[in-house]
Amino acid sequence: MIPIGGMSAGTGLALLDATKDKSLALIRSSAQHERAISQFREKIADVSSIDDLMKDQDLYAFVMRAHDLEDQIFGKALIRKMLTSDVSDRKSLVNRLTDQRFKDMHADMGFSPSGAASGDFSDPAWQQKMIDRYVTRQYINAGEEQNETVGRVLEFREKVAGVRNVFDILKDKDLSTVLRTALGIPEATAGLDIDKQAEILERKLDLADLKDPKELDRLVRTYVTISDATSGQSTQNNAALQLLSGMNSGGGDFLPVTIDIAAITALPRRPYA
Predict the structure, then answer these.
(1) What global pTM score does this model have?
(2) Cα 25 to chain center, whole Å?
(3) By its UniProt entry, which InterPro entries does this protein fall under (predicted)?
(4) Which of 53, 150, 195, 235 has the most CB atoms in a 10 Å sphere around its CB?
């Protein structure tokens, strides 16, 4: 990913949006990730049980990282129990865990309660879905490492499609932080009873807006603008933003801009430090 350290969140996000396809391609082609992807393709088709997955550390770690569960890699007993949970049993572990990451991994892997693989891991479409999830996760993590606000926006965009009700928002830190800020809901309301929080959010937000790309963009821009303002960041004179905006001095039309990704990625990680 291109470096955005030292930039405001607004500028950094604009730069990442303008170069996303190139950034994803760079992640896929990097030595570390290219090797991990190649090993995944080579090995996953031979997995027929939960034991097969667990005994191959590289394969297991790839699946965990694809689901943003790298911090849980060493909890194999928990992961095994979760993956073999009976989703039809309301009391099973996967249904008791509130973190959506576990539910997503359970659904993607599809192991039966006996530990047998019920899906076809040799299916190229399934493999590509998992690889895309892995690459996207590396992209989001890289953005978050450089700028917390940018990382939160990337997470928000990734998760918002799965929102079914206001409680899905309130139980997720990234979703709730972005929307509380953008909607002008005080952070202190996070300490209120969950039903009261839901009532406040429902008054401020039409859930249908979360399906509208223009409204989503407006919410994100509002969140980023407020975050930059409260952190003291200013984008007014930032050269990168001027390049991305491409505004001429005469009429306000956008001008085409060519960004040299190779040159940008060669910059130090914090070029303005």
Answers:
(1) 0.81
(2) 17
(3) AGR-C-984p-like_sf, DUF1217
(4) 150
